[in-house]
Write the structure tokens for this entry.
Amino acid sequence: MVLPDKAADVTGGVAREQLRGAKAMQLHVNPHELILVGENSFLRLSTDGSQTASTRCSHWRVLWSPTGAGHALFVESGLVGGVRVYSDSVPLVRFLQKEIEHLLYKPFGDASLPVLAATFEREGTPPGGCSEIVRPGGAEIRLSWGEFLEPFNFSADPGYDGRPIGVQTTFIPAARALLSVGGRNADGEPWKMDRGGKPCTSACLAWCETWFRPR
């Protein structure tokens, strides 16, 4: 009489479970049309405890889009005299305005805004401080983030929050953020918020970002 090999039976059971698990974890390919790959870090500052935003900045570092790569900075602040747009690619700005920015903050989506030529540079990375430096030929513009919270990744499908396009991104929230123009600092501070159960703020590095729309 041959007794069953219990060790072999256990091993075989583990292998079968692993196989079932591997089948369950299939590669998921995004079925939508990709329209942009890059970064869209932002900061919003308030002087009244988040009731209103006294300063808004939307910084883009685009690695791929139908109009090519490049950078753009959309700013609303008294330091620049209202709403201003800086970039090293006018076609990229118009693409961002048409496809994305008008959904995020309508004044930034105004295609009649002039585009001011500028160069772009990053200084530092988390966990230390990080700055995006924009030089339009005049006063240096510096966006700075620091005192970072735990990063998190999320995906918002087309239709979320009423938007026809979707995004997948990684947020690195900052407890401290600053906009300076020519050495003058904008008033206000970022405020705390919750995003999908994760501690967040109104000032985040938004990296590894992909935007897409339904085919």
User: Anything to note?
Assistant: Helices lie at 6-24, 90-104.
